[in-house]
Design goal:
This protein has 16 helices and four strands. The protein has one domain. The longest helix has 30 residues. By secondary structure, it is mostly helical. It is globular and about 70 Å long. The strands form two sheets. Strands 1-2 form a two-stranded antiparallel ribbon. Strands 3-4 form a two-stranded antiparallel ribbon.
C-alpha cells in the first residue's frame, strides 16, 4: 500500500527526497524483509501468549524420543505468525496489481486456511490425525489447478524470446525495474510451456516435447501436461515441507535458505539486462516476486526467534503447508520447478524416506511375514535421534552415538546451504 501511495503521489506531481527509491525492486525487497522480521518478532510474543492462554498445545506421539515427549503442550498453530508477517511486508511494499504477487497471495491464504483447518481439528476436535489425507490432497490439487490454469490462460504471464539488449546502457533505474524503454527491442511475446533445466546449452526444456500429438491437439496436450506438472510440483512441495517440520527450527531455517535463492532467481529472471547477461529466461513482471519472497524469508527469520531450540512455538500445518505452497508456486511461476529436487533436497530426502519406508515395510511383510525397515524411523531427521529400537529388522541401523536435536537441525541447514549454492551455480553450467 505504501508502494501504491507513492505511485499516486508521483502521478499528481508530489515529489520529495527519496521518493524514487520505491521504483527499485531491491530497495522494496529490503523494506519488505525488515518489516516481516519486525512484525514476526513483535506479534510472535503476543500470539504465543494467546495460544498459551487458550491452551492450544502440541499433541506429541510416543515415538520413543525423549526430546519429543518434552515438547508436549508447546503452543502450536504458530504458522499464523508467519502468514501475518508475510502479508504485512507484501501489502505494504509489493505491486498488488502484479499477477505473480496475486497468485502468491492466493496460495498463501489458501494453504494457510488448509493448514489451519487441519490444526483446528487436531487441537479443538481432539482428532490426532487432523484432516484426512485425501482432504488435504484435494485442497492442494485444487490450488495447483488454479495456478496452472492461470499460467495457461492469463495474458499477463508470458515469456519474452529473442530479447536484444543495448549493453552500453548505464545500469540505472531501468535495470532495476521490469518496465522497458525504447532502447530495448523485444520480439516474440509468447505463451510458453518452456522451463529451466540444467546442464544443457540454452537451459530450457519445453513440455511440448512430451506431447504425442501435433497441430491443435498438440497445443492442448502440451498445456495439459504443463498444468499437471504444476499440480504435482505444488502438491509435492507442500507435503515435503510438512514432513520436514519435525525438529525445532528445521523447516523454518531450511525454507529460509530456499526462499533466498528463489528470491534471487526471481530478481534475475525479471531483470532484462541480468537475464540477458546470464542467458536465462526473461519473464516480464516476475521480478516483483523478489519483494514477496523477501517478506517470506523475513517472516521465517523472525519466526526462528521463537522456534529455534528449545522451541517456544511450533508452526503446525498452518505454517508448513503455507511454506511449501509458496515455494512450489514461486518455482513454477519463475519456471524453475525442475531445479527443486536439488534446491529443496532436504524436503525431497525427507519425503522420499517416508515413501521408501512404507513401500519396503509392506513389501517385506508380504514376502517374509515380518515387516522390515530401511531406517529406524522416518521422516529421515528422526533416524539420527536417540530412540528405542524399532520392532523388526532395520536395514540402516541408527547412528552411534545418536545426535542431539539441535545438532541435527544445524547440520541439515548446512546441507541446505550447500544445495542452494549448487543450484545457483547451475546458472553458469551448460
Amino acid at each position: 500500500m505504501i508502494y501504491h501511495l507513492f505511485l499516486y503521489l508521483e502521478s499528481i506531481g508530489v515529489d520529495f527526497p527519496g521518493m524514487g527509491l520505491m521504483h527499485y525492486l531491491s530497495f522494496r525487497a529490503m523494506l519488505s524483509a525488515v518489516t516481516a522480521v519486525l512484525v514476526s518478532m513483535y506479534a510472535g510474543k503476543r500470539i504465543i501468549g494467546l495460544l498459551q492462554r487458550k491452551q492450544i498445545g502440541e499433541t506429541v506421539r510416543d515415538l520413543g524420543l525423549a526430546d519429543q515427549i518434552q515438547k508436549k503442550g508447546t503452543p502450536t498453530m504458530g504458522g499464523v505468525i508467519i502468514i501475518l508477517s508475510i502479508l504485512s511486508g507484501v501489502l505494504l511494499f509489493c505491486d498488488l496489481t502484479n499477477i505473480y504477487v496475486l497468485l502468491l497471495l492466493l496460495s498463501t491464504l489458501w494453504c494457510g486456511a488448509l493448514g489451519f483447518t487441519d490444526d483446528y481439528i487436531k487441537v479443538f476436535k481432539h482428532r490426532k490425525e487432523g484432516m484426512s489425507e485425501k482432504g488435504k490432497l484435494l485442497g492442494q490439487i485444487a490450488l495447483g489447478f488454479i495456478v496452472g490454469l492461470t499460467v495457461w490462460m492469463s495474458p499477463d504471464i508470458v515469456v519474452r524470446e529473442k530479447v536484444e539488449v543495448d549493453t552500453s546502457v548505464e545500469r540505472t533505474l531501468e535495470t532495476e525495474t521490469t518496465v522497458t524503454s525504447g532502447r530495448y527491442v523485444e520480439e516474440n511475446v509468447v505463451k510458453s510451456t518452456k522451463t529451466t533445466i540444467p546442464f544443457v546449452k540454452n537451459h530450457e526444456f519445453d513440455y511440448r516435447w512430451l506431447s504425442p500429438f501435433k497441430g491443435a491437439w498438440g497445443w492442448y496436450c502440451k498445456w495439459a501436461i504443463y498444468v499437471l506438472m504444476i499440480v504435482l510440483v505444488i502438491t509435492a512441495c507442500s507435503n515435503g515441507t510438512n514432513l520436514t517440520d519435525g525438529l525445532d527450527g528445521l523447516a523454518a531455517g531450511t525454507s529460509a535458505v530456499v526462499g533466498v535463492v528463489l528470491g534471487l532467481m526471481a530478481w534475475l529472471g525479471g531483470n532484462l539486462i541480468n537475464s540477458n547477461f546470464l542467458n536465462i529466461m526473461y519473464i516480464p513482471g516476475s521480478g516483483e516476486m523478489a519483494v514477496f519472497l523477501s517478506a517470506f524469508v523475513g517472516a521465517l527469520i523472525g519466526f526462528l526467534w521463537y522456534n529455534s531450540f528449545p522451541a517456544q512455538v511450533f508452526m503446525g500445518d498452518t505454517g508448513s503447508l503455507t511454506i511449501g505452497g509458496i515455494i512450489g508456486v514461486s518455482a513454477v511461476l519463475m519456471r524453475k520447478e525442475l531445479l527443486l529436487p536439488l534446491l529443496c533436497g532436504i524436503f525431497f530426502a525427507e519425503s522420499l524416506s517416508v515413501l521408501l519406508q512404507r513401500f519396503y515395510f509392506k513389501y517385506t511383510k508380504k514376502r517374509n511375514g515380518v515387516g522390515s525397515r530401511i531406517w529406524s524411523m522416518t521422516p529421515l531427521h528422526h533416524h539420527f535421534q536417540d530412540k528405542k529400537a524399532p520392532d523388526g529388522p532395520v536395514l540402516i541401523p541408527k547412528p552411534v552415538p545418536p545426535q542431539h536435536e539441535a545438532k541435527i537441525t544445524v547440520r541439515f541447514w548446512i546441507v541446505g546451504i550447500i544445495l542452494a549454492v549448487s543450484t545457483l551455480a547451475l546458472l553458469k553450467i551448460r
